[in-house]
Each structure stands twice: as structure tokens, then as C-alpha cells.
Design a protein that fits this description.
Distance between the termini: 20 Å
Bound molecules: adenosine-5'-triphosphate, magnesium ion
Structural class: alpha/beta
Strand order of the largest sheet: 5-6-2-7-1-8-9-12
Number of helices: 9
Mean pLDDT: 91
Shape: globular
Largest sheet: 8 strands, mixed
Length: about 280
């Protein structure tokens, strides 16, 4: 990835948004969107004002996972986000529903990201989560260069192939001086329903060890849980069950750590410094 020198970045804050947090990974399919929707709901149920921007313009899955089929309205040139489960949402999937693929070139991607950040009426938000597409490409770069990111969450499964790519994501954020809020280990293990036996399908603990080796905070592990998949596919993420529910509790614990770490990160580098 070609990284322009820091001095060229002008990171303009998004009015009303206190913390901008990206959820990324190196590898695809490790659970970024699942983590994003459940964290957003957990934060909202914990009392925060939350938005979720689906920045995966190639495969926008947030509408399906949040159970939304509506199209946002525009008002005086601004797009009104759709609110679901107490979370304000924007996604390319609202504008291009169905299976029609969209083909993006770099400059178009950049301009759609800017519209999503700046022409959507986000209002006052404690946290705007951004669900990134897989990899370390143009979407992440467009955000990093133009908006002050409070911190990044990197999701990985514990398998070595996912971690190999996860390390690249960590290094990319480091290179462009974005604070790492921490790593999440998803699909960490499976509890066999009949026996209660714990199976380390992808080799549990790998993301935690990688986080430690790279000096990145570890935010927590989430099991491979059929209810999590069903929650996503049915548009009712498990976090809706609340903090006391055993299947949702892991998301609430991670949400709490993310909120704590964001406060620390914001103290270290105030979000509203306009330029580097
Ligand atoms: N902890 C989990 N337990 C069970 N299923 C899960 C878990 N996490 C994610 N999944 C399932 O794995 C699939 C991939 O997850 P998801 O779409 O969130 O990954 P992603 O990293 O956003 O993918 P992409 O790179 O395509 O954006 C989905 O079907 C989701 O329901
Ligand atoms: Mg996704």
C-alpha cells in the first residue's frame, strides 16, 4: 500500500461524532460485520449514542444482519440514517439492494466514503463504528486520511492464515499512526452442545498471543456459536438478548473495553485536532 506522507493528511472531524472507531481485519470472513453489529447494539443498550457505517461497498452485509430493508430519505441534500435497535445505520446496501454488484474505482470509493461520513445526518454520537471491507485497501485509506479516527479494532480468528493477515492490518494502522484499541479473537472455540466439550477449531488463543507479541491490547474472545450466525442471518443479532445472556455477554464485555480504551485513546490524542 502506498502511503502518502503524514503531512498531506487533513483529518477533518465529523461534527457531533465524539469517537470514530474502525472495525477491520486482514482476512475476509473472520466476523468483522458480526462483531460490528453486535458491538453497536451492545453499546447502544449500555446507554451510548451509536452509529454504524457499513464501509464495505463491495459486500454490504449490515442491512441483512440488522434486519433492515428500508431506503434512507434525503432531506435538504443530507441523507437521514436508518435507525434500528437504537443504532443509526448507513450502508451501500440501502442504496443498491439485491444482488447487483457494484464496481468501484479508487476515486469513486473515496467520494462515496466522504458522502457517508459527511453528508449523512449522524447527529450527536458517542461512537460511530465503521465496518471495513477485508484487507488494507482504499476504503481504509480514504477514512484514515480524511477523518480523525479514535482507534481501530482488528478482528481475527485464531488460525495462522487469519493472523498472518491480521498482523498486516495492525501494521497498516501503526504505519498511519492510528491508535489500536485492540484485537478481538472471533470463532475462538466451540462448545459441543451435547457434551460441553471445548473444541479449539482454529487453534484457540492465537489472536491473544499475537496481540501480546505485537504489544496490542486484547479485547476478548468470542466462541463459534451457531446462535451468533443465526442472529446475523435473521437480522436479530444476539446482543439484543442483553448483557446478562450468556451468548451475548462476550459482546458486552468487549463493548465495555472498547468504550474504556476509546476514552484513553481520546485523552492521548484529542479526536478534534484537525491536522497532524
Ligand atoms: N462467533 C461466531 N459464531 C458463529 N458464526 C459466526 C461468528 N462470527 C461470524 N460468524 C458467521 O461467519 C460468517 C462471516 O461473518 P462476517 O460476515 O461477520 O465476516 P466479515 O469479516 O465481515 O466478512 P467480510 O470479510 O466478507 O466482510 C457469517 O455467516 C457470520 O454469521
Ligand atoms: Mg463484513
Amino acid at each position: 500500500m502506498a502511503t502518502p506522507p503524514q503531512a498531506e493528511f487533513v483529518r477533518t472531524p465529523i461534527p457531533g461524532v465524539k469517537n470514530l472507531i474502525t472495525v477491520g481485519s486482514g482476512k475476509g470472513g473472520v466476523g468483522k460485520t458480526t462483531v460490528s453489529v453486535n458491538l453497536a447494539i451492545a453499546m447502544a443498550l449500555s446507554g451510548a449514542k451509536v452509529g454504524l457505517l457499513d464501509a464495505d461497498v463491495y459486500g454490504p452485509n449490515v442491512p441483512l444482519m440488522m434486519g433492515v430493508r428500508d431506503t434512507p430519505y434525503a432531506q435538504e441534500g443530507r441523507i437521514l440514517p436508518i435507525e434500528q435497535f437504537g443504532v443509526k445505520l448507513m450502508s451501500m446496501g440501502f442504496l443498491n439492494p439485491g444482488d447487483k454488484p457494484l464496481i468501484w474505482r479508487g476515486p469513486m470509493l473515496h467520494s462515496v466514503m466522504q458522502q457517508f461520513l459527511r453528508q449523512v445526518e449522524w447527529g450527536e454520537l458517542d461512537y460511530l463504528l465503521v465496518d471495513l471491507p477485508p484487507g488494507t485497501g482504499d476504503v481504509a485509506l480514504s477514512l484514515i486520511q480524511t477523518a480523525p479516527i479514535t482507534g481501530a479494532i482488528v478482528v481475527s480468528t485464531p488460525s495462522e492464515v487469519a493472523l498472518e493477515d491480521g498482523r498486516k492490518a495492525v501494521l497498516m494502522f501503526r504505519q498511519v499512526k492510528v491508535e489500536l484499541l485492540g484485537m478481538v479473537e472471533n470463532m475462538s472455540y466451540l462448545i459441543v452442545p451435547e457434551t460441553g466439550q471445548k473444541l479449539d477449531i482454529f487453534g484457540g488463543g492465537g489472536a491473544e498471543r499475537t496481540a501480546e507479541a505485537m504489544d496490542v491490547p486484547f479485547l476478548g474472545s468470542l466462541p463459534l456459536d451457531p446462535q451468533v450466525r443465526i442472529g446475523g442471518d435473521s437480522g436479530r443479532p444476539v446482543a439484543l438478548l442483553g448483557a446478562e445472556d450468556p451468548q451475548a455477554a462476550g459482546f458486552f464485555a468487549i463493548a465495555r473495553r472498547v468504550m474504556e480504551r476509546s476514552a484513553q485513546a481520546a485523552r492521548k490524542a484529542p479526536t478534534f485536532s484537525v491536522e497532524d
